[in-house]
Amino acid sequence: MGTKKGKLKNKEPIKNVLVTGGGGFLGGAIVKLLVERGCCVRSFSRSYYPELASMGVDQFQGDIADKTSVEKACKGIDLVFHVAAKTGVWGKYSDYYRTNVKGTQNIIETCKKNNVSKLIYTSSPSVIFDGTDLEGVNESFPYPGKYNAHYPKTKALAEQAVRAASDNLLTVILRPHLIWGPRDSHIVPRIISRAKHLAIVGNGKNVVDTVYIDNAAYAHILAAEKLDENPGISGNIYFISQGKPVLLWEMINNILKAGGLPPVKRSISHKAAWFIGAILELVYNIINIRSEPIMTRFVANELAKSHWFDISAAQNDLGYIPGVSTEDGLKRLESWLKNRS
Fold it and tell me: Which of 41, 123, 230, 297 could link 148 by a cystine bridge, Cβ 3.0 to 4.6 Å?
């Protein structure tokens, strides 16, 4: 996978592992790494995935918000990677809360009840995004007082629950930013499907972090191993990225190029996009439209502002070094997209 797997294979494998959301983009990449290491892997997802079955992965189907199902999945497990989440920028708060907060609380309580010793939680840098430029901030940056979307708010609540549980459960919280690569089911298809309608929001000079899928998965394995070696890192939060921020719209154009599509040339001011997003959110809420608006306040801010982070803590504590460069990742993405068409 392009990561430094030599180091991983020389260590004692973690025996019995549960990955929530094991059939998803990141969860599946973590599962693959664990299987390659000889771990006994179990996945907990809503659906059954033939590709996991082909790897010999034990699959449990259920709802993360159903505590009974979670308890069954955690039986005999030593380590949990809690990756499952409700993502996106639109929907009912109750749905986000049910999956992201209640689901995480179920995982925490079940880990304690079943004597699961370690929990690696997948969070997101969006939990600290306040709509302004975030440039090189570290893990000490505070949560904002207000959120413009349900996803970051509920992920922040879940993250805080995991931190609070670290007094009697070994935990590490990872914040990978804008994960992309082959088999992506969110960012890449979203960009490609909207190619004809995309417009640069703001001046197009905002800089962001991203992370290639293999690097994001590798960071999770490292976190579990380092937690074994040094329980003192329990409760810590780590940003995960390529370590080389890029211009957001240059990255979007590179993804479009990988898909054989032309670059974005139209533009709209940040203020106009934010205003359109606010109006659409109001109208959609009044009329109770479930589909996602073409613009929201959160998306307008995300597309116009810089958001990149200091990953020195992950480098120092976890030994995290991205094994796949952005350039190589884009080549792999282009090859994958061509083979799909």
Answer: 297
